[in-house]
Amino acid sequence: MQEVIRAENLEKRFGDFVAVKGVDFSITEGEAFGFLGPNGAGKTTTMRMVQCVSPRSRGDLEVLGMDPATHAREIKALLGVVPQEDNLDPELTGYENLRTYARYFGIPGEEAEERIARLLAFVQMEKKQDVVIEHLSGGMKRRLVLARALVNDPRLLVLDEPTTGLDPQARHLIWDQLRGLQAEGRTIVLTTHYMEEAERLCDRLVIMDHGGILVEGSPADLIGRTIGRQILEAEAVPLVLSCLERHGIEYDLVGGSALVPTDEPVRVTEALLEECGAIRLATRPATLEDVFLKLTGRRLRE
Ligand SMILES: Nc1ncnc2c1ncn2[C@@H]1O[C@H](COP(=O)(O)OP(=O)(O)OP(=O)(O)O)[C@@H](O)[C@H]1O
Predict the structure, then answer these.
(1) Ligand 1 pocket residue status of 249, Cβ below 6 Å
(2) What is the pTM of this model?
(3) At 105, is the secondary structure helix, strand, or coil?
(4) I need a labelling partner for 261 at 20 to 30 A (CA). Which of 5, 156, 175, 271 fits?
């Protein structure tokens, strides 16, 4: 499989502040690859270097086999970008926004018309294509930004928080569309601070925090490696905590609960019920949020 993006010791400084601290990652053609992390982790800054809009301060970066420092124009022609902020022209319609992009990429008239019609249908916006942007909902604008990113038929799509601020229905629609694009063989790179988005969409991901990469792997891999398959949640009363400690069972205190990462929930449940009597406890599958909490002691959205 061909490598589409390769970063080695990639660093970005703003004055004395290091926003991206020498990160390494490699993304393969056809993958859906995610950068998961809280606000300020350095995800957007990393994407902006990949999109050739912000030069790196140090390290190596190759996008589609080229160096953004010397081949920005060539890379941009092959790239589809969904930026964090919707930057459609608010005074134009959806159709006009896409038409402007097609002109920018020099796509000839008839081909542009055919492609725009197909893209508007793909994002389910054909009925609203003549509505001026400022009258559309957030989800509709996001779908148009996605359609616009596809005007140049890119092999590689880079999306910065594609569904932030959308309601669940609008989010699920975009997820379906992204899965469809990946099924066509396109490479998808996205940033998110929604662990559910990362779990559902990404074949592989890195978790970023404070400008660095903490871990890398498939969602199942990361959860299995860091947590185990299950999380047992018990009310954090002194009796429960002392029982866990006596058995040498590790736990994290979050809110009023003790969270026990485990592959053996039955054994832990039995020990607690036997020694603590009637207590509130429940078992659930572990998530990437639990991985982040384990690695940093914080929640993703704190
Ligand atoms: N132009 C800039 N000048 C100075 N500092 C910056 C600049 N751009 C970003 N930063 C800082 O770099 C850090 C990383 O920001 P970045 O936007 O990459 O984070 P992020 O993970 O994408 O978070 P968010 O979800 O909020 O976009 C932050 O501390 C931010 O304040």
Answers:
(1) no
(2) 0.90
(3) coil
(4) 175
